[in-house]
Specification:
9-stranded mixed β-sheet; binds adenosine-5'-triphosphate; binds magnesium ion
């Protein structure tokens, strides 16, 4: 491409409203332009980068036997009503009506669409397994779009869905995608880690997020210093540090059980959340029972009753409930998650004695309530894991870092197939729900994460595999025929070799051209200037300070 013809509006100044490096550099390098809050247009330099990432994704997924399709982004509400998510998705879903007043949405994700497609087309186990994917624009009316394309309201996602006949099949599909993701992000030059993740609104049992460690990340990740345990803070479990007797004394002095104002309680909770690891129960106003649950024993997903940290409010509470909770002694372990309480109340487990799961006093337990089945919750719902806490696997301390979620994989099981009647006839002649997984990668966010890890004070330093072009040829002065002639010859030769090459034939000073090529991060630069009288050019790598004068014959071997 000749740069004189290129639509590449670069900026010298740092745009005022761009807070993070990747956002600033994408704007400055002329990759993107903002149209509305969280809505961006993609320009040639941006498109090339996003396409490179998409190509890598395609190669790695095709390698695993996945097949590309493309579904509509415009989705009728009926599908979402079938799965039950029309009401669950809330304000993040972009909804609209057609001329006949029928409800539609712009897809924020496509579990329903893919499940429905398979339901219509698949009848027998012989047609499974399948793994289908698409690369398509998703719409999410994010509460807080920010950081350029890191969090937008319309973004390109690769979303894949696997369909298996049983759990063992799903395990393999999931592992295949895990491996593909590992390859994809490595090829993108990203230093990243898979971490255990919460399944959130998508649902399902097992899930991993691919996290790029970065100060600008909106997620907090917990890494064990002694083993391979790594989890999103939302999901992290830990053996919580014990409070000292001193700290317990302080807590008791500040607050005594009884009737308290909400304000007093709030102060108390702040204090206790920072410092303590014991369970205490307070009656706020005779109506609201507030429980601080800070377990001091080992916690993991299966040990309900040894919950950790935080505040639980029971809104309902008749007198009996209040009594039951206040009767629970210090040291009882309360419900493990805030969600749990709502579930319990919704289920009208009204019997006061049954309100508490895992109380250490007999007759104060909810009988037969199982974590995962009857309610959800993690340590993170109450109190974040800290560096003082210990790994439940190996007992080592944690490191806590910020991360950008670039990919996310889930085992969905039969959640959607059961809700939507997506069944197949198995070998034994029985009709069974298809066992599903789903797998997402944000294309533009991945590009932003790459810039966060690959830049210097002069601009982007793209890894070769992602760079919009591999080489830029810079004639120092386009008015000098000998510069232009040689530059054009190099440009044509490289192009014939299949190298993606730019010719900076703009009538600008060399300094301006160098600045632009550094800003947009082209990995190799060939400058045609005064040395051409000796048949030589200057060769420079973007990532190195060194400039080498090489002969024209050497170019080919350097670039290959
Ligand atoms: P986040 O926690 O950042 O809101 P998410 O968990 O809601 O992301 P998923 O539903 O798991 O996102 O979607 C898969 C991938 O799509 C994410 O891992 C991310 O790379 C990308 N993605 C999600 N939301 C956005 C967004 N608003 N803008 C850009 N990319 C996004
Ligand atoms: Mg989200
Ligand atoms: Mg997330
Ligand atoms: Mg996610």
């Amino acid at each position: 491409m000749k740069m004189s013809k290129m639509f590449m509006p670069t900026l010298r100044e740092v745009p005022a409203d761009a807070e993070i490096t990747s956002h600033q550099l994408m704007l400055r390098a002329g990759m993107i332009r903002k149209m509305a809050s969280g809505v961006y247009n993609q320009l040639p330099m941006g498109i090339r980068v996003f396409n490179k990432i998409q190509d890598i994704i395609r190669e790695e997924l095709n390698e695993k036997g996945c097949q590309e399709i493309l579904c509509s982004a415009l989705i009728p509400a009926e599908l979402w009503k079938e799965s039950g998510r029309w009401d669950v998705m809330g304000a993040e879903m972009m909804r609209l009506k057609d001329r006949n007043d029928r409800d539609f949405c712009l897809g924020p994700t496509h579990e329903e669409v893919f499940t429905d497609l398979i339901k219509q087309e698949i009848t027998s186990y012989k047609q499974l397994p399948l793994n289908l994917y698409q690369i398509q624009v998703k719409y999410r009316d994010e509460r807080r779009p920010r950081f350029g394309v890191m969090r937008t309201r319309s973004f390109t996602m690769k979303d894949a869905y696997s369909f298996d006949t049983d759990e063992a099949g799903l395990d393999k599909s999931y592992q295949d995608m895990f491996d593909a993701y590992t390859n994809i992000f490595a090829r993108c030059g990203l230093d990243n880690s898979p971490v255990q993740a919460d399944t959130g609104a998508i649902g399902g049992s097992v899930s991993a997020e691919f996290m790029v460690k970065s100060e600008v990340g909106e997620d907090e990740i917990v890494f064990c210093s002694g083993c391979d345990y790594a989890a999103n803070m939302e999901k992290a479990v830990a053996v919580v540090a014990e409070p000292s007797t001193e700290e317990m004394k302080e807590l008791k002095e500040v607050h005594t059980p009884g009737v308290h104002t909400i304000e007093e309680l709030e102060n108390f909770f702040k204090l206790s959340a920072d410092k303590f690891a014991k369970t205490l129960v307070y009656v706020a106003d005779g109506k609201t029972v507030v429980v601080v649950v800070r377990g001091d024993r080992e916690v993991n997903e299966t040990k309900v009753g040894n919950a950790v940290g935080g505040v639980v409010e029971f809104e309902l509470a008749n007198e009996e409930v209040v009594k039951a909770v206040t009767n629970a002694e210090i040291g009882f372990a309360g419900p493990i998650g805030i969600k749990a309480d709502y579930v319990l109340i919704d289920n009208e487990v009204a019997n006061a004695r049954n309100l508490i799961i895992g109380a250490n006093k007999t007759e104060y337990h909810i009988e037969n309530a199982n974590y995962g089945r009857d309610f959800e919750g993690t340590v993170g719902d109450f109190r974040n894991v800290t560096e003082q806490d210990k790994c439940t696997k190996c007992g080592s301390h944690f490191e806590i870092a910020r991360g950008v979620e670039v990919g996310h994989i889930f085992k969905l099981g039969t959640k959607y197939s059961e809700a939507m009647g997506c069944n197949f006839i198995d070998k034994d002649g029985k009709s069974k729900p298809v066992v599903m997984g789903c797998y997402g990668i944000g294309v533009e966010r991945t590009a932003a994460a790459i810039i966060e890890q690959h830049h210097d004070e002069n601009g982007i330093t793209w890894p070769l595999a992602i760079a919009p072009y591999h080489v830029v040829v810079v004639p120092v002065n386009i008015k000098k025929e000998e510069h232009m002639e040689v530059a054009e010859k190099i440009y044509n030769d490289l192009q014939a070799m299949g190298v993606e090459v730019l010719l900076d034939d703009r009538d600008e000073r060399a300094g301006v051209k160098f600045k632009d090529s550094e800003l947009i991060g082209i990995p190799m630069r060939i400058t045609v200037g005064k040395d051409i009288v000796d048949g030589k050019v200057e060769f420079k790598l973007r990532k190195s300070e060194e400039k080498e004068v090489i002969s024209l014959d050497e170019i080919k071997s350097r670039v290959e």
